[in-house]
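Work Package 3 (structural annotation) set out to generate three-dimensional models for the target panel prioritized at the project kickoff. During this period the team completed the workflow that converts sequence records into discrete structure tokens, so that structures can be stored uniformly alongside our sequence database. As a representative example, we reproduce one entry of 71 residues exactly as it appears in the project archive.
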Amino acid sequence: MGSFGIGVWEIFFILVIALLVFGPGRLPEAARAIGKGLHWLRKTSTDLTTEISKEINEIKDEIDDKGGEST
């Protein structure tokens, strides 16, 4: 098995279909666009995860501060 649970034959089949759909001239352009899209998605996902973690930590700190004041 290869990446993402896909075997060698499945990857080969996907590449053949992509070659038929896009043609040999546009295949590199399509691959580049897909790569840029995946890069943007990965970066956005990382940024969102970081921002959510910061917010959660701020809320936890506020809760801890309020809990310390009442005791």
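The longest helix spans residues 8-70.
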